[in-house]
Amino acid sequence: MMNENNFEIIWTEDGSPSLRDLHVPTKEAMHHSGGAWSESLYIYAEALSLFQSKFQRSIKEPFCVASIGLGLGYNELMTLSALNGSDFGQILSFEKNELLEESLLSWLAERPSPFSELYDHVFNLCQHRWKGTPSKARMLSFINEKRWFFAGPLESPWGGIKAPKSHLIYYDAFSKKSNDALWDYNFLESFLRERADRPCVFASYACTGALNKVLDQLQFTRLEKPGFHGKRNSTLAWRDLI
Predict the structure, then answer these.
(1) Which end of the chain is least crowded, N or C, by CB within 10 Å?
(2) What is the pTM of this model?
(3) pLDDT per residue as tens digits for the range 148-172
């Protein structure tokens, strides 16, 4: 049974929190030690900004966001804050660790949570950057309304739920060394072919040969950005740019 003792809390160089998963063989941390918040802004907030400036107004139906790797909720809290009341259809958070889902839900509901201090810190960072950050009660209402959905592990078919295709995808899964299946060419090809909408923006801290091949095959334009804080390249990609 997974519990908070399977995680080590890390305070990164920019003063923001991360977790190290002691349960995976590599004991991999969720973020670069150079700054969890800074890394999230560099990789995923830039993708969100591109989506808002180039795509959002062209999408007629409510748009859908998929976040692969809930973790401490950085990407979800940033997205809800930056959208500032936009009429999004659904945010799907994929996470195989049930404790992380339950812990974030408890924090939103003002119940005891093992990582409350960490969520508070991320929430405050979002409030400082975006004036439109919803209250915790409002975020909880998105969950109750099934507009923010905890979908379980991505390895199962979308957590067994029927969901629309996504216009914005954050691919923040653990590395190939820790979770080889999610970086396999066949898996990536099937996932993106079935679940990436048109238009779509895709972002990941990683840049692998298999991922590049799939994005090219599915007519995405790729920008290979330098990785955060000296990491190897990261990925920002889009298709059907307006």
Answers:
(1) N
(2) 0.94
(3) 999 888 876 555 567 789 999 999 9
